[in-house]
Specification:
Blueprint lengths: L19 H4 L5 H4 L6 E2 L11 H13 L9 H14 L9 E4 L2 H12 L5 E4 L6 H8 L3 E4 L10 H11 L7 E5 L11 H14 L2 E5 L25 E4 L13 E5 L18 H13 L1 H25 L4 E2 L7 E5 L9 H9 L1 E2 L1 E2 L10 E5 L4 H13 L3
Parallel strand pairs: 1-11, 3-4, 3-5, 5-6, 6-7
Antiparallel strand pairs: 2-8, 7-8, 9-10, 10-13, 12-13
Helix pairs in contact: 3-9, 4-9, 7-8, 10-12
Length: 390
């Protein structure tokens, strides 16, 4: 499987479009959780204007009063078209999809289909903190299979976790983060095929969170889990939310492999997505590629900028060479700041980062930094982080 090449963006870098004064007028979580003297580089919101096709689609819907309940298959058709062009994958069958309120609520519904109360759900730590929160809230047990060398899936550890989880003959699920958050690791086709083989061998059902799929670095190929041999019984959640900064316009799609079934998912789940969200996500997938290309070029430039800034100001910090997402996983253990360096950078430097321990085993001594901001803000944030250590 090959991805289309990342060409020269047809639009200006959206990460350079908004200044700090304008961003501080926003009322979302990123900009209202901390006081105004704090630079927020934590939660996964991007400092960008929306893609024009998205703005136009939502504005037209509002002008028409088209604000009712979601219906139809336009979102699934748009995702199928995007997947075919972007990942050379034509495996999305519209009849094997369902709209859900967002990816994590979709994950909950998928896990309800394949596990019961008390059953184990395996995750690759360090991993997105809501994996722990949502799984335990629905009365399942989190079982960690930590990432291995190069922050990649350790197949031996995963096999051990699968074996132990199913030893008593019960049901188990594997909640796969692909691309991986917070490390930015993009799993290869061979790795995913090995995962599918292990899952079939041990009777573990795979639920893949693929929300960051559009956000891979130039030259890197994203491989949908359901596209690999042996993944026929897998389930996946995808969304335009992260790629186009649409978290406040709720919608996502649940996808089922040909050997899986969404028929048992309650019909009322499809009432949860926002109709405007579905409209926005559909427009992004159909018409927002040029904007996405410009964004990806900007994120890649910020990755390089962060590497240079750390080398100059904080050489003891080791950045993880992420291949996807707009999130940077930083190893700060050599600084001697304890398990939660983010608390020090917030208190002394007035920079808000995500705390490593929240990501589970392997997170202590780390922080997650949001790259989806302007180069000026990123530069000032690293300067403040360095000053916090003086």
């Amino acid at each position: 499987m090959t991805s289309i090449p990342h060409g020269t963006p047809g639009e200006p870098d959206p990460l350079r479009a908004l200044g700090l004064e304008r961003l501080r007028r926003r009322t979302s979580m990123k900009w209202r959780t901390y006081p105004e003297d704090v630079l927020p580089l934590w939660v996964a919101e991007m400092d960008v204007p929306l893609a024009e096709p998205v703005v136009r689609a939502v504005t037209d819907a509002l002008a028409l009063g088209d604000t009712g309940y979601p219906a139809g298959t336009a979102y699934a058709e748009a995702l199928a078209g995007f997947a075919a062009k972007r990942w050379n994958w034509d495996g999305i069958a519209v009849e094997h999809t369902a709209i859900v309120p967002d990816v994590m609520l979709g994950v909950v519904e998928m896990l309800k289909l394949v596990t019961g109360p008390g059953d184990p759900v395996i995750v690759n730590s360090p991993v997105y903190p809501p994996f722990y929160q949502f799984v335990t809230h629905m009365d399942r047990r989190v079982v960690e299979a930590p990432l291995g060398t190069g922050v990649r899936i350790d197949l031996d550890r995963l096999a051990d976790a699968f074996r132990e989880a199913t030893a008593g003959g019960g049901r188990a699920a594997y909640l796969l983060c692909s691309p991986h958050n917070p490390t930015g690791t993009v799993h290869t086709a061979a790795e995913l095929a090995a995962v599918a083989d292990l899952a079939e061998r041990y009777g573990v059902r795979v639920v893949a969170d693929e929300i960051h799929a559009p956000l891979v670095a130039p030259g890197v190929t994203f491989v949908p889990y359901l596209s690999v041999p042996g993944a026929e019984r897998g389930l996946s959640l995808m969304s335009a939310s992260k790629g186009w900064n649409l978290a406040g316009l709720k919608a996502a799609l649940a996808l089922a492999g040909p050997g899986a079934d969404l028929a048992q998912m309650p019909e009322e789940v499809s009432h949860g997505p926002s109709h405007l969200g579905v409209i926005a996500h559909t427009a992004a997938l159909n018409d927002g590629t040029a904007w996405l290309e410009a964004l990806l070029a900007g994120i890649d430039a910020n990755r390089r900028l962060l590497t240079d800034l750390l080398a100059e100001h904080l050489p003891a910090i080791r950045p993880c060479p992420g291949e996807a997402t707009y999130l940077a996983w930083l190893d700060c253990r050599a600084l001697g700041l304890g398990e939660d360096p983010a608390a020090v950078f917030l208190d002394r430097g007035r920079v808000a980062l995500s705390s490593g321990p929240d990501f589970g085993t392997g997170g202590a001594g780390h922080v997650r930094l949001n790259l989806a901001t302007s180069p000026d803000i990123l530069t000032e944030a690293v300067r403040r982080m360095a000053a916090a250590l003086i």
